[in-house]
């Protein structure tokens, strides 16, 4: 058994070192990903549930690695955050998304909005607001068309500073959404002190909502409180007809999910808009 223990340890450490080697390799190639143009911004349509029309999209990063193929953001965003690479990458996403949105405005989709995910490292930079202003100026995009998606975990550590930062951003005229709502530790009443405009219900609550009465109850409670706080509500990860019915009946304002569309390349998104597809 002593020997078994030894073998187990060896096996475990081998797995660990493969894991960390892979991490270092990814880290190195992520470094070059930006300049080698391996990164792309994809767009997942957001649909207004009252009109059924596409009202905007969420910008989602994709990495086409020359040897490994597509690497999901769930795998490389944490590495980018740890190494600080998220700062140049995040700026590039903002710049690209604003630029591509402006092109869509120019061909007639002039009320379309874009939502961009912002990581904690970006948000806490002292000159983040300044960088944002520069991007809005160079792309000639009015701030009312830009929405920033933030998660609660990045706001609850230094509440006062976070509130001040958010107010300074909102003063520019852009919109703030709280993403992945319900997965963190804070209550909605606690979050009331933050100046959000939009609440995104996390997809884990939407999943199997017709069979899972627990999820349905939580979602209804979140919607009710968000309405009282006069927040717009978006349901994400809507995959089935039943889930769509639920979010419509329970007065969500917008939806996003595979039942309408997966995230699309800029070209595919433009084609979808031109096709006039609605819910
Ligand atoms: P998120 O912000 O919560 O984004 C929503 C995720 O749900 C996306 O995964 C999207 O493709 C996926 N999704 C949308 N509808 C459905 C559906 O109906 N069913 C299912 N199963 N999934 C759906 P994705 O693109 O893999 O992104 C994962 C996460 O990576 C994002 O979660 C976000 O936290 C992060 N991320 C992506 N792009 C960026 C970025 O540019 N900057 C930063 N900081 N984070 C990003
Ligand atoms: Ca998001
Ligand atoms: Ca989310
Ligand atoms: Ca998420």
Automatic annotation (TrEMBL):
It comes from the Bacteria. Residues 23-277 form the EAL domain. Signal peptide: none annotated. This is EAL domain-containing protein. It comes from Limnofasciculus baicalensis BBK-W-15.
